Fold this protein.
Amino acid sequence: MECIAYKVLAFFKCLNWDNLLFINVYRSYTLNQHVQTVHEGLRFTCHMCGKTFSRKTTLDSHMTLHTSERPHKCPHPSCYQDFTTKSSLTDHLNFHPDHKPFPCTICHKSFNRKSYLKSHMNLHAGIRPFKCNYCKKAYTYKNMLQRHIETHAAVS
């Protein structure tokens, strides 16, 4: 049985604003945090440089810049690099040729970028968004269209 997760938004009415707050319940941001940071001005201050942040988690991430702490380790068996931020680790993982966390649900081919998987899904759906301006042939991938256009240039 396949489990499908949906992002759920909760609606909250902020008494200080006329509009509703749309809060993703999978995140830890709550109405109380909104009131504290936006309306009460609660800030978290870095004791080393004085920079302020609206969330403690952002301050915690910032603190790694002042220390030698690098809490995000590359999980690749032959790689020993570590990083100060999770986003730096994510960028790094794309350089490992066997790191392909985005599998196709139809043919099970895996990709290292979500955009590559999205483009690949056009193949299964029969979508050909790249059209030739000369003869109206259409292709699933941009590089295939570019190769095709070269045939027109060779004929001219």
